[in-house]
Amino acid sequence: MRGVERIEQVFRELKTTGAAAFMPYHAMGYPTRQQSLEVIAALAVAGADIVEFGIPHSDPLADGPTIQTATYAALVGGTSVADCLKMARELRDQGVDTPFCAMSYYNPILAFGEERFANAAASAGIDGLIVPDLPPGESELLEPACRAAGLATIYMLAPTSTEERIKSVARHSTGFIYLVSVTGITGARDELPPYLPAFVERVRRHTDLPLAVGFGISTGPQAARVSEIVEGVVVGSALVKAAGAETGVDAVRILAEELAAGSHKGVDG
Amino acid sequence: MTISTTSTPVNYGAVPDETGRFGPYGGKYVPETLMPALDELEEAYLNARVDKDFMAELAHLQHTYVGRPTPLTYARRLSEELGGAQIYLKREDLAHSGAHKINNALGQALLMKRKMGKTRIVAETGAGQHGVATATAAALLGTECIVYMGTVDMERQKPNVFRMQLLGTEVRAVDSGSQTLKDAINEAIRDWVTNVETTHYLLGSALGPHPYPAMVRDFQSIIGIEAHSQMQDPAEGGPGRLPDAIVACVGGGSNAIGIFHPFLKEEKVRLIGVEAGGHGIEDGAHAARFADPERGRLGVLQGTKSYVLQDSDGQIALTHSISAGLDYASVGPEHAWLRDVGRSEYTYCTDTQTLKGFSALCELEGIIPALESAHAIGYVLELAPQMAQDQVILVNLSGRGDKDLGTVMQTIGGDR
Question: Which end of chain B is more exposed for a tag (fewer CB within 10 A), N or C?
Answer without folding.
Answer: C
